[in-house]
Design goal:
mainly alpha, Arc Repressor Mutant, subunit A, single chain, 4 helices, 3-stranded antiparallel beta sheet
Length: about 100
Amino acid sequence: MVPPKKKVISESYLHQISVLKTLTHEGAAPSPKELSEISERSGLKDEKEVLRYLYILEGQKLVSPQPEGDFTSKIWAITKDGVRALGLVSQTTLQ
């Protein structure tokens, strides 16, 4: 019998999760954060890369630029759906 393949989470998904976690830093109430702060706290030093992940997460309605709809904004916040998604992720084991 062949053992089932272990599911592997891509590096891109891990970075997206890191960005989401950064927007709810240390269990504090979610508040908008500047792009430079998100970049620094997430460990992803390239702001363009962080912005790419933010765009991906925005497409999934998990984050939103502030003011909403302004994609040139340097300020982003996690949405209620993002908080719920992060809660589900934290209930699973990431290896």
